[in-house]
Every structure is written in structure tokens, then in C-alpha cells.
Design goal:
This is CBL-interacting protein kinase 1. The protein has one domain: Orthogonal Bundle (Transferase(Phosphotransferase), domain 1), CATH 1.10.510.10. The protein is 33% helix and 26% strand.
Length: 190
């Protein structure tokens, strides 16, 4: 019975991640992986296309061993829980989470304009009109998060993405906190 269960589990994992030869690259579930969009300390983000709909996604690939070595399992779980709660036009959306024996795959909204940091570094300062528009969107996104009880705690230009319509998307909620994770100290002065 245990052997049958193990074989079924192994088959399911092989279904989640399989390599196809020829023109197609690596696949994760129904997503075909493409170029690397970014890399971090415990994984990378790859461009992906859904094989049925051809819709574009970004898949964050996390190495389970690296996550355990760095003792950040709770941080990853918190990021996933947080993103499941958030649905706002200025926040990157999480569509689903897949896992194999060695990796976790977070299927995220693909934002084609890259980081706001790179935009400013390559093209210089924003016009006043652009800056005002992006700042208003940032305030809207952060306000929405706070209304949901989510605190980003790592908001910086590298974690603000721009889409094709020059709208911002707040990303990377790895250091975020939900109310039950915050410890607030109240001091009174006499």
C-alpha cells in the first residue's frame, strides 16, 4: 500500500514538472517556462506561457532546500497567504501555487515593464505628471494593503513594477506582515 502511494505521489510530481524535448522548454503543470526575469537569494523568476490560453505569467521558482537552509519557510508561507488575500489593480496577483519534491512554484501576474528602479536608472527622472500618477497608484495599492491588514515592510523601487500601460504593481511581499505577526509596543510617558 505504501509503495503504491509513493508511486502515485511520484507520478503526480512528474506531471507537475516535466521536461519536453525539441522546441519546447521546461514545463511546470500547464505552463511552459521561458527566459529568466530575475534572480534572488533563494530562487528565480521565469517568464511563462499557459499552454492552453497562451496567457503570460511570471513563475517564482523557490528551492525548498535553500528555503529550509535559510530558515525562511514561515516567510514564504506568509508571502503566499498574503498574496492570496490581495486582489487590487496595483498589487501583483498570485494565481496559484504548485510544488514538486524540491521546488515551490508561485504563478504570478506577469508585469511586462520591469522594475521602477530600472526605469528611472535607464531613462532618468519621471516627469511631474508621471510621478504624480505613479505615486497616486502606489498610495492606492498601499492603502488597500493596509485596509486588508497587510504591511509590506520592504517597499522600494525594486519592488514596484510597471506594466505596459505605465501603471504600477507592488510586488515581493516576502517580508510583509499580517496583524497577528506584528508586535506593537505601547509606552506611556509620565
Amino acid at each position: 500500500m505504501v509503495l503504491i502511494h509513493h508511486q502515485q505521489q511520484q507520478q503526480q510530481e512528474e506531471e507537475i514538472v516535466r521536461r519536453e524535448r525539441g522546441k519546447k522548454g521546461m514545463r511546470v503543470g500547464k505552463y511552459e517556462l521561458g527566459r529568466t526575469l530575475g534572480e534572488g537569494n533563494f530562487g528565480k523568476v521565469k517568464f511563462a506561457k499557459h499552454t492552453d490560453s497562451a496567457q503570460s505569467f511570471a513563475i517564482k521558482i523557490l528551492e525548498k532546500n535553500r528555503i529550509q537552509d535559510l530558515r525562511i519557510t514561515d516567510q514564504i508561507k506568509r508571502e503566499i497567504r498574503t498574496l492570496k488575500v490581495l486582489k487590487h489593480p496595483n498589487v501583483v496577483r498570485l494565481y496559484e501555487v504548485l510544488a514538486s519534491k524540491t521546488k515551490i512554484y508561485m504563478v504570478l501576474e506577469y508585469v511586462n515593464g520591469g522594475e521602477l528602479f530600472d526605469r528611472i536608472a535607464s531613462k532618468g527622472k519621471l516627469s511631474e505628471t508621471q510621478g504624480r500618477k505613479l505615486f497616486q497608484q502606489l498610495i492606492d495599492g498601499v492603502s488597500y494593503c493596509h485596509d486588508k491588514g497587510v504591511f509590506h515592510r520592504d517597499l522600494k523601487l525594486e519592488n514596484v513594477l510597471i506594466d505596459g500601460g505605465r501603471n504600477i504593481k507592488i510586488s515581493d511581499f516576502g517580508l510583509s506582515a499580517l496583524p497577528q505577526h506584528l508586535r506593537v509596543w505601547y509606552l506611556t510617558c509620565d
